[in-house]
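Anyone else keep sequences and structure tokens together like this?

Example one:
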Amino acid sequence: MTTTDSTTEPDETESAVETARRQLERAAAHLDIDEGVIERLRHPTSVYRVSIPLERDDGSQEMYTGYRAHHDSVRGPYKGGLRYHPGVTEDECIGLSMWMTWKCAVMDIPFGGAKGGVIVDPKDLSSNEKERLTRRFAEELRPMIGPMRDIPAPDMGTGPQSMAWFMDAYSMQEGQTEPGVVTGKPPVVGGSYGREEAPGRSVGIVTREALAYYDRDPAETAVAVQGFGSVGANAARYLDELGASIVAVSDVDGAIYDPDGLDTGDVEGHDESPGMVSGYDAPETLTNEELLELDVDVLIPAAIGNVLTGENARGVDADMIVEGANGPTTSTADQIFEERDVPVIPDIIANAGGVTVSYFEWLQDINRRSWRLERVNEELETEMRRAWTDVRREYESRDVTWRDATYIVALERIAAAHEARGLWP
């Protein structure tokens, strides 16, 4: 495990929960909060582990392991994604559930944090197998989820169709349609317009606000985006429309680079057409690692966690980093960027558009009234700007990083709720 006073020790083994706890402790050091509250927030309320039997298309049966971590619900029902990935672990789910708690609080959304997933490579499943796995996972989780208890959402390896299957399986067992049990569904079954684009759109909005704070003109800004999937592609296209020059993007196979700027509308995202990015006809091709070290104004890591580490942070040549992925920067890398005065705008505000529009979707579901896309985007703009203003005030009033300022906003709200509600004997 990495120590925060070392900038040379490799930190690729730092888990999400270790990073989340370090960030909690840094923010807590700036606030006068009861240690009992901080100790409670270091740990999840509960973690569920379930076994999921799956009948494969050839008639054989396999067992898969799934998790659902509940971190904190003092401000409202648990909220967080479900991912299908071979690297899912209990610790990862706990750490990500902690980040969801902070994310909901910094956006002032009345939800708590949760996260879950199944240890499986979704590429190894047929569509029918994925449906059967999802429906059985929903049944295994049914005692601990619900529109007022825990509301899952899509994540890596899942999407709107998975959420539709999940909602249908839950509803069939409940004997009535319960669209509010999950968010990220197709609009035809209670999903919200704009939900899929929301995390990337919020990254674009926050990048725009950060550029304005540092008196940078988007039209004179070069941007590199690692991970041209749902988040990265939508962030890149949003910034492209503002006039920024998107000079490099990547998928899992590699990166493309054009110093004059890429046409982000012509480059299809990895979710839209796998392999399209690295196979695109661009002036230069790069590795994902080389993209991270390009001389650009803004770097947006929007792929996976722990890509900016103690080993490569000094080679990053961007003037600013805006986190699109969850946890792309390790603690050691964070310290190096702080020493180098490189602003890092954290994930828990930058990509919070996903949970924000999920909240809008939940409101639409429980009220049985849908919103137009224009309203969704207007409301998202309002909420993102409000959250940015709250974080900016803390940043300006304290000698802290952007990450610390964001966590301070979140932690103050969570602690106030804990103190108001007290401790059940």
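And example two:
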Amino acid sequence: MAAISLVDLNEENLEEKGCFCLRSKPNSAGYKNKNQWLLGRFSEGLTYKKIMENNKPAGFIEYTPIEYSSRVVYGENYLVIHCLWVAITGKGYASQLIDACIQDAKEQNKNGVIVVTNPDTSWTPSKDVFLKHDFIEIDKAPYGFELLVHKFGQSPNPYFPKDWDKRLEQFEDLTILRTQQCPFVDIATDNVIKGADHLGIRANVIDIKDREELLKLSPTPYGIYGVVFKRKLISFHRLTVHSAVKRLKVLV
């Protein structure tokens, strides 16, 4: 029988344990940036749990209080799940991780737990597993984003902003907005820049400093990565260089 355990990352064990994603490339910029980002977030209440099978990483969940969240959603006294991923399916590991988050929210006297999903990308968690844990969909945003919540009482629902078109109007030049919450952001940024160089387009990169700036600038609820050109959303997830060229070329 497999030995299963949950491990919480913290300041003391982060260097040894590291984050789940890109762990096969510990010297990559994305992996290093993510671990450095985590070091600055633990004091804000961020939780990063890895589920281990026979001492090997099988999946993880990352969540944080809404006032420090990297997702563009409004609400009071919620935990927000940033990421949920399991490498070994069919064993209930995702459910164990979600249950741990819900229990934490109860112990912290939160109003509930929020997650942002999108069926068009693997960069957000899948909706189906959350519906099985009594999450309900309460809001939608452009580009397929869905807002789900598991509430404990009659507190007000969280919600998305409604000014997505206005946000895009700020960006005529090619602009990449990002944080280091995801280790794949570095690769995603490089691919767009390489594609833009191929077309002779200069890319501006905005490293979002805090949640206030995130809520103001982000073109989608995903928050931590967005590419905008000529007031059009190019992507909110990683593209290949070829795909970046293809999407940019139609707007040149």
